[in-house]
Amino acid sequence: MNVNAVKHQAKLLEWKERVATCRSSGLSVKRWCQENGCSPKTYYHWEREVLGKVREIERPESRPVLTELVVAKALPEHHAANTSFVPAAVIRFGQMELELSNTVSAELLSHLKGLMQLAE
User: Fold this and answer.
1) Can you give the pTM of this predicted structure?
2) Which residues have C-beta within 8 Å of that of residue 15, sequence separation ≥ 6?
3) What is the DSSP string of 1-20?
4) DSSP state of 69
5) CA atoms within 13 A on the CB side of 3
6) β-strand 89-93 against 96-100: which pairing, if any?
7) Is residue 81 scored above 90 in pLDDT?
């Protein structure tokens, strides 16, 4: 996944929350946008993106998308390469399994949560 795709994914996650907030606010889109500093044109653009992703996931013929997660920080130097890994948590999603250590960063957990929410 290239940098632009990662940025787009982050924006998609941000706007997923914003669309949900707008829809549950009871305000018109125009009013909500005024109060939240964005234009209705921008709102509707991202609403289409978010809803398009939901429709894509809901299609029975859609397949899971595998992506590489890039870990920004290296392991601490005192971490021996030959140490056997014992996961603190295991997340299973379909046939995918993700093992996490108890030292995983909050930032990485947040990104994983966002990706899983998109796949819901």
Assistant:
1) 0.46
2) 46, 47, 49, 50
3) --HHHHHHHHHHHHHHHHHH
4) P
5) 1
6) antiparallel
7) no
